[in-house]
Design brief:
globular, 120 residues, single chain, mainly alpha
Length: 120
Protein backbone atom coordinates (compact mmCIF):
# COMPACT_ATOMS: atom_id res chain seq x y z
CA UNK A 1 0.00 0.00 0.00
CA UNK A 2 1.27 3.47 -0.90
CA UNK A 3 2.14 5.76 2.01
CA UNK A 4 -0.14 8.76 2.48
CA UNK A 5 1.18 12.03 3.89
CA UNK A 6 -0.29 13.58 7.01
CA UNK A 7 -1.42 16.57 4.96
CA UNK A 8 -3.31 14.25 2.62
CA UNK A 9 -4.91 12.46 5.56
CA UNK A 10 -6.00 15.88 6.85
CA UNK A 11 -7.25 16.83 3.38
CA UNK A 12 -9.51 13.79 3.07
CA UNK A 13 -10.39 13.95 6.76
CA UNK A 14 -11.72 17.47 6.29
CA UNK A 15 -14.04 16.25 3.54
CA UNK A 16 -15.14 13.16 5.49
CA UNK A 17 -15.92 15.21 8.60
CA UNK A 18 -17.88 17.81 6.62
CA UNK A 19 -19.88 15.07 4.92
CA UNK A 20 -20.59 13.48 8.32
CA UNK A 21 -21.92 16.80 9.61
CA UNK A 22 -23.91 17.47 6.43
CA UNK A 23 -25.53 14.05 6.74
CA UNK A 24 -26.72 15.06 10.20
CA UNK A 25 -27.88 18.59 9.32
CA UNK A 26 -29.94 17.90 6.20
CA UNK A 27 -32.83 16.77 8.36
CA UNK A 28 -32.93 19.99 10.38
CA UNK A 29 -34.14 22.51 7.83
CA UNK A 30 -34.74 23.16 4.15
CA UNK A 31 -33.29 26.65 4.42
CA UNK A 32 -29.90 26.56 2.68
CA UNK A 33 -28.48 29.49 4.68
CA UNK A 34 -29.38 27.80 7.97
CA UNK A 35 -27.86 24.53 6.71
CA UNK A 36 -24.67 26.35 5.78
CA UNK A 37 -24.48 28.16 9.13
CA UNK A 38 -25.06 24.99 11.16
CA UNK A 39 -22.57 23.00 9.11
CA UNK A 40 -19.81 25.60 9.18
CA UNK A 41 -20.13 25.93 12.95
CA UNK A 42 -19.31 22.22 13.28
CA UNK A 43 -16.46 22.05 10.76
CA UNK A 44 -14.51 25.15 11.80
CA UNK A 45 -11.13 24.80 13.40
CA UNK A 46 -12.02 25.86 16.95
CA UNK A 47 -14.79 23.24 17.14
CA UNK A 48 -12.51 20.54 15.68
CA UNK A 49 -9.83 21.53 18.18
CA UNK A 50 -12.35 21.11 21.01
CA UNK A 51 -13.43 17.71 19.65
CA UNK A 52 -9.83 16.50 19.55
CA UNK A 53 -9.38 17.53 23.18
CA UNK A 54 -12.54 15.63 24.13
CA UNK A 55 -11.33 12.60 22.21
CA UNK A 56 -7.77 12.43 23.54
CA UNK A 57 -8.46 9.80 26.21
CA UNK A 58 -9.90 7.46 23.54
CA UNK A 59 -6.81 7.51 21.30
CA UNK A 60 -4.36 4.65 21.04
CA UNK A 61 -0.62 5.33 21.28
CA UNK A 62 -0.37 5.12 17.47
CA UNK A 63 -3.24 7.59 17.05
CA UNK A 64 -1.74 9.98 19.61
CA UNK A 65 1.55 9.85 17.70
CA UNK A 66 -0.21 10.55 14.40
CA UNK A 67 -2.04 13.51 15.98
CA UNK A 68 1.22 14.84 17.47
CA UNK A 69 2.99 14.65 14.12
CA UNK A 70 0.05 16.34 12.35
CA UNK A 71 0.06 19.15 14.95
CA UNK A 72 3.72 19.75 14.16
CA UNK A 73 3.21 20.31 10.42
CA UNK A 74 4.10 23.76 9.13
CA UNK A 75 1.29 26.29 9.15
CA UNK A 76 0.22 28.42 6.18
CA UNK A 77 0.97 32.10 6.80
CA UNK A 78 -2.73 33.03 6.64
CA UNK A 79 -3.48 30.71 9.59
CA UNK A 80 -0.67 31.77 11.91
CA UNK A 81 -2.82 34.03 14.08
CA UNK A 82 -4.68 30.93 15.35
CA UNK A 83 -1.72 28.56 15.52
CA UNK A 84 -2.85 26.31 18.34
CA UNK A 85 -6.40 25.81 17.05
CA UNK A 86 -5.18 25.36 13.49
CA UNK A 87 -2.68 22.71 14.60
CA UNK A 88 -5.32 20.89 16.66
CA UNK A 89 -7.83 20.98 13.81
CA UNK A 90 -5.21 19.63 11.41
CA UNK A 91 -4.49 16.79 13.83
CA UNK A 92 -8.23 16.08 14.13
CA UNK A 93 -8.68 16.01 10.36
CA UNK A 94 -5.59 13.82 9.91
CA UNK A 95 -7.03 11.28 12.35
CA UNK A 96 -10.41 11.30 10.60
CA UNK A 97 -8.64 10.81 7.26
CA UNK A 98 -6.43 8.06 8.65
CA UNK A 99 -9.42 6.14 9.98
CA UNK A 100 -11.37 6.69 6.77
CA UNK A 101 -8.55 5.23 4.67
CA UNK A 102 -7.36 2.51 7.04
CA UNK A 103 -10.05 1.58 9.56
CA UNK A 104 -13.67 2.48 8.81
CA UNK A 105 -14.90 0.54 11.87
CA UNK A 106 -12.73 2.70 14.12
CA UNK A 107 -14.00 5.80 12.31
CA UNK A 108 -17.58 4.70 12.93
CA UNK A 109 -16.82 4.12 16.62
CA UNK A 110 -15.11 7.51 16.99
CA UNK A 111 -17.84 9.44 15.18
CA UNK A 112 -20.38 7.84 17.51
CA UNK A 113 -18.38 9.22 20.44
CA UNK A 114 -18.01 12.63 18.78
CA UNK A 115 -21.72 12.84 18.02
CA UNK A 116 -22.30 13.26 21.77
CA UNK A 117 -20.54 16.63 21.56
CA UNK A 118 -22.48 17.88 18.55
CA UNK A 119 -25.56 19.86 19.45
CA UNK A 120 -27.71 20.40 16.40
Amino acid sequence: MEEISLRNYAYIGDAVWELHIRNKTIFLTQNSKKLHDITTSKVKMNFQSELLNNLSSQLTDQEQDLARRARNLSIPIARRHNQNEYRQATAFEALIGFWYINDKERLKYITTILDRYIEL
